[in-house]
Amino acid sequence: MNMENNQMFRVTMGQTARDYPAGTTFQTIADQVQGDYPHDVLLVNRNGKLCELHKKLDRDCALTMVTAADRPGMQTYERTALLLLLKAFYDTVGRDKIRRVRVEYSLSHALFLRAMGDFTLDKDLLERVEARMRALAAEKMPIVKQSMSTDDGVERLRAMGMEDKARLLSYRISSRVNLYTMGDFTDYFYGYMAPNAGYVKCFALEPFEDGFILRLPALETPEQVGPFTPSMKVFRAMHDAEDRSAAMYVSNVAEMDDIVASGQATQMILAHEALMEKRIGDIAEEIASRKDVRFVMIAGPSSSGKTTFSHRLSTQLMACGLRPHPIATDNYFRNREDTPRDANGQYDFEGLGAMDVEQFNSDMSRLLKGETVDMPTFNFKKGVREYNGEKLTLGDGDVLVIEGIHCLNDEFSHSLPKESKYKIYISCLTTLNIDDHNRIPTTDARLLRRIERDARTRGYGAQATIKMWPSVRRGEEQNIFPYQDSADTVFNSSLIYETALLKPYVQPLLFGVPRGSDEYLEAKRLLKFLDYFLPVPADDVPQTSLMREFVGGGIYKT
After folding, report:
1. pLDDT tens by residue, 340-361
2. Rounded CA separation 538/534 (Å)
3. 417-438: string of b/e by CB count within 10 Å (b at 16+)?
4. Which residue blocks in 160-297 are alpha helix, DSSP H?
5. Closest by alpha carbon to 265, among 507, 552, 495?
6. Quick one: DSSP state of residue 535?
7. Mapping DSSP to helix (H, G, I), strand (E, B) and coil, where does residue 429 land?
8. What span, in angstroms and rounded, lies between the C-alpha atoms of 81 and 193?
9. Cα 335 vs. chain centroid, distance in angstroms?
10. Residue 78 and residue 481: Cα distance in Å, rounded?
11. How confident is the model at residue 204 (pLDDT cuts 50, 70, 90)?
């Protein structure tokens, strides 16, 4: 007797419950309720665990449908679209003519890729690849997930010429690995997939710079391709960082693991720290060459390392013969009672309205004229601005190093002459990828930094940091990202080794996120991501390193 055909399981979805035979796929259940959702169901959340739609029902459970309007769903959509692109690219060009197709990074609702081999990457080729993608999507070509031993997976990937993936998996402790196959194309991906190519409906291929972009939907509008409005200054910074890392033979995690395993981690750390110090020195020299600059204004998203960067830049400015003075824009907050509130009635501390813009401009203008100014200090406990006798006068060679969320927004410094300002956008723009087809989002690098710093300096658990992260990012999208191209320069604060350094610090914190909590899925995703890295000890990280702002042990007060 076939028990699977006779046994029934109760599936609860919201306020309703239905009975299904054992062995029913989640895709069958999703298809039955798809009409209740405005977007395609891509995954299911079963009792707090994400499951792909090919999985079969084997117990009573509560199910929540996950669509492309949910972040895990959009990540699945992106991953599936990339597999579809690679299959179509190999079909169109021919495997024997392709040396490498590499996903570099995300760029304004798109992925930027570079392709190398015996072919010409032009608009005509991309049109043919896109047509092939649409044909495969139209026929709903199945995506088959295969579980095999890690050794077999390594051998299979090596036979297909995917050496980067084979080397990566050779460092996995897990005894098994999952590969995904579409037709005759097999690849390894970190994360979940849709069941077939038909789920990928909105995309476009376009030439861009020395590569091309795969345009994808925005999370807010899953049924249409998102706008492509990239910051070219940020793109250039990431492009340069990628080329420098490749020149130092560290462009993916496997290459870095090779270095760590061979005992050469110290040289790698010092080389990348030297690259960063040179870049800071170059910025200081450029500032010094602009004789009219009196205000160095620094802004960037959370956990970019703004404080340490400000200290190190100040040191380099001193080496150029200038006298830097730090100014925290937090001291120009409006008194708490005058702070505007958001739609939920909470104080909005991140909007420009929370700042006493006119007082800031008055003080800076007077300093520019050579006057002596009483400098404020904001008392966060009392919620008021205070004056404690601190005075400042700008003489020859004096520059103010000003750090704050609104420093790139000219409305904040509207009365200061343009030539008196040098604006710096700083962000952790990681270019290290897991392998050629699995990228590391820059926001993940910043989140890992934030989790460790919050735990060390504020006593927050990883759950609290993960919970507040979407709100942090919304504030950045409103107050920082729109102004990044107004900067005179972009400083990339990412260090190639930082995730390997953070791993032993962050891993225990992520394991502390309670199973069943809303933040558990994100914690689990980050833990799986960290599993690819061999840890790097902090012993050889310089005390001046930007990473000391997050792991401690630095010489700067942060």
Report:
1. 988 888 888 889 999 999 999 9
2. 13
3. eeebbbbbbbbbbbbbbbbbbb
4. 163-169, 232-247, 253-261, 265-289
5. 495
6. P
7. coil
8. 9
9. 34
10. 22
11. very high
- Residue located via tokens 């000391």: 548
Q: What is the pTM of this model?
A: 0.90
| Residue of 150, 338, 110, 130 lying closest to 231 (CA atoms) | 110
**Residues 6+ away with beta carbon under 8 Å from 15:** none
Residue 197's Cβ-side half-sphere holds a number of Cα atoms within 13 Å equal to 23
Find where tokens 């959702």 sit.
Answer: 37
Return the SS3 of 432: coil
The residue type of 204 is: A
Do residues 20 and 57 make contact, with C-beta atoms less than 8 angstroms apart?
yes
The long-range contacts involving 85-89, CB below 8 angstroms and separated by at least 24 positions, are 85/129, 85/133, 85/203, 85/205, 85/214, 86/185, 86/187, 86/437, 87/136, 87/141, 87/182, 87/183, 87/185, 87/197, 88/129, 88/130, 88/132, 88/133, 88/136, 89/115, 89/129
